[in-house]
Backbone:
């Protein structure tokens, strides 16, 4: 299977190709108030009507569980308003906010993954290649172990420590690899991998001297999680990730030149060092923000760009925004699966399962790995 | 030679790096518009380094390079890229591009802030492909082409850049005889036919003699000789540089031209 390459990119082709992905994403967001762990039985349309102040006819609610509280077979105005209130609070306060966060995280990880694959000229690069994930996790773990748990100005100290840890590790990687002049050199990747392994070892050390509660926390942290989330926390992520979205989508043409090699790009007027520096900076800040908020959610940054490249071609002008939109959609879907999976499994086995949600990192791996292996096979065949 | 307007002048240009501070130079050279220069010389003579100095990718340690009457180093990267095209010996990046996309990318310096190419860019790219006879595989991936076809595509991208000066580093190094001739034929046609002035690094002295208007012979970072091929590419000049005995064979159909062939039975020692 060869990548599909349409005729050279025109503004119209750009809009048409992105409009489809954007449409799917909007549809998912529209549906999101209706999907979640809570068995509250209202649909996405109920939540939207309640949110938009459209009255829900009482007749529609007859027979719905938990609506007719006094069991008189009729829906009073009070019961109807109670239902609307529930649909609005859970639908938007929890589910929609959660999907918005999944959107931000998925967009950022896929975009940064695609960028790193171009930047390092390495198809196996991920947003975590430079050690961001393990650095962030170690930072979070240290903060927890030192009992440094508080919330300052809406930001938890654990998230702050994770952010600082991630940034420190990347800075250290660049200091160690400073001797090599090229960003594509193996020194940088090796420094990233080595420091990542070191951070993992340090995490084992800290875990070994931790109590059960802390150990449980760090295990859950490493799985990645989109909950608990409140809208304010999701909004705090925006200033960290939006610069990356803007810079990387605007830099598509320069990145295309970069793919031809450092020398040719430089001869075409691209400031290669500045391009690399800016891209690494915005990606690191954005990814560190995501890791601090949600832990290291894997496979999105690796798998999504490769799938998207097969669909839209590898022109960075379309590859980067399309990867971003697809990453957002992918993570929303994985998050839904993580919430519904336990309920389905519980219903099938007839047992009460421990946790309400499956860790998101488990779902991205379960979905992502088979797709990735399938793609590898398809690539080999052509 | 001096009747052509000057495009580029090098005055006592030197270049070096850590450990080899005097690697190249001093070199003084004048390149006129419409000329087709070949830079020849043994491996490690500094040919590629000189080409990168001309491209503005390296800065001379001392001396000056003047391009179109202005110091080359004063041009912004974008202005320089609009006037000078450079084709490296090997494409180091990944080439997962369609042929027409790759040629269009040559237009980048002219509209680097826009996200898309204009209709004018498409027209210029198509002309460049017509000139290099690459239109036939416009919709194919560059990775599916033969080495010779791919090199013509890279050449088309460089022409689409519409430079005043086209610099190429061993463009025929891995090509078969037919494609070697095709590439040099295009280069000479461009240079003398109102297209960009051409400077090409090559190891093939016979191709240089046949297609180029001027030759610069480098050895150990110094300019040994420069001028018309007939003056530079002679056994007397080349033998001490290459340390090989050469025989000059006359062409049957053009006795004025010589074909240089190394003799394996005798060797002279390099100076």
Residues:
């Amino acid at each position: 299977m060869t990548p599909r390459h349409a005729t050279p990119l025109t503004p119209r082709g750009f809009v048409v190709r992105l409009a489809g992905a954007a449409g799917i994403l909007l549809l998912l967001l529209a549906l999101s108030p209706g999907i979640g762990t809570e068995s509250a039985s209202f649909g996405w349309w109920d939540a939207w009507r309640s949110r938009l102040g459209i009255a829900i006819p009482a007749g529609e609610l007859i027979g719905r569980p938990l609506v007719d509280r006094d069991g008189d077979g009729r829906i009073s105005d009070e019961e109807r308003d109670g239902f609307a209130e529930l649909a609005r609070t859970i639908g938007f306060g929890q589910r929609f906010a959660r999907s918005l966060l999944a959107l931000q995280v998925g967009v950022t990880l896929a975009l940064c993954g695609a960028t790193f694959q171009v930047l390092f000229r390495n198809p196996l690069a991920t947003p975590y290649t430079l050690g961001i994930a393990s650095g962030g996790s170690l930072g979070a773990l240290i903060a927890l172990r030192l009992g440094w748990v508080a919330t300052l100005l809406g930001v938890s100290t654990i998230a702050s420590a994770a952010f600082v840890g991630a940034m420190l590790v990347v800075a250290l990687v660049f200091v160690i690899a400073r001797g090599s002049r090229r960003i594509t050199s193996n020194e940088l990747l090796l420094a990233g991998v080595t420091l990542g392994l070191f951070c993992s070892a340090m995490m084992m050390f800290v875990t070994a001297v931790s109590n059960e509660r802390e150990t449980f926390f760090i295990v859950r942290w490493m799985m990645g999680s989109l909950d608990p989330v409140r809208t304010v926390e999701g909004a705090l992520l925006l200033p960290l990730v939006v610069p990356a979205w803007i810079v990387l989508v605007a830099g598509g043409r320069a990145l295309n030149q970069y793919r031809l090699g450092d020398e040719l790009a430089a001869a075409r007027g691209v400031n290669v060092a500045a391009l690399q520096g800016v891209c690494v900076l915005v990606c690191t800040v954005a990814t560190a923000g995501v890791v601090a908020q949600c832990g290291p959610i894997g496979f999105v940054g690796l798998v999504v760009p490769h799938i998207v490249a097969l669909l839209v071609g590898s022109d960075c002008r379309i590859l980067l925004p399309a990867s971003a939109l697809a990453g957002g959609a992918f993570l929303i879907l994985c998050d839904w699966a993580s919430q519904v999976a336990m309920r389905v499994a519980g219903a099938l086995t007839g047992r009460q399962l421990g946790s309400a949600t499956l860790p998101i990192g488990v779902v991205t791996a379960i979905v992502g790995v088979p797709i990735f292996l399938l793609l590898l096979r398809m690539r080999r065949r052509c | 030679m001096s009747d052509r307007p000057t495009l580029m002048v090098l005055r006592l240009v030197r270049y070096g790096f850590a450990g080899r501070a005097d690697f190249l130079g001093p070199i003084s050279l004048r390149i006129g518009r419409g000329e087709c220069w070949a830079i020849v010389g043994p491996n490690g003579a500094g040919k590629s380094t000189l080409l990168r100095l001309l491209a503005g990718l390296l800065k001379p340690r001392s001396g000056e390079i003047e391009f179109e009457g202005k110091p080359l180093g004063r041009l912004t990267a974008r202005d320089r890229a609009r006037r000078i095209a450079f084709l490296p010996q090997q494409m180091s990046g990944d080439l997962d591009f369609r042929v027409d996309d790759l040629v269009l990318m040559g237009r980048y310096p002219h509209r680097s802030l826009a996200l898309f190419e204009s209709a004018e860019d498409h027209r210029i790219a198509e002309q460049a492909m017509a000139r290099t006879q690459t239109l036939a595989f416009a919709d194919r991936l560059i990775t599916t082409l033969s080495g010779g076809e791919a090199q013509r595509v890279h050449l088309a991208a460089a022409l689409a850049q519409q430079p005043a000066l086209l610099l190429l580093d061993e463009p025929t190094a891995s090509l078969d005889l037919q494609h070697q001739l095709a590439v040099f034929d295009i280069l000479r046609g461009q240079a003398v036919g109102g297209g960009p002035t051409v400077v090409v690094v090559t190891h093939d002295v016979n191709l240089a003699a046949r297609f180029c208007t001027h030759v610069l012979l480098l050895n150990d970072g110094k300019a040994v000789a420069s001028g018309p091929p007939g003056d530079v590419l002679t056994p007397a000049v080349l033998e001490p540089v290459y340390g090989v005995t050469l025989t000059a064979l006359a062409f049957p159909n053009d006795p004025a031209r010589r074909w240089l062939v190394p003799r394996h039975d005798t060797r002279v020692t390099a100076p």
Notes: Chain A has 14 helices and two strands. Chain A touches chain B through 34 residues (CB under 8 Å). Chain A has a mean pLDDT of 85. The radius of gyration of chain A is 23 Å.
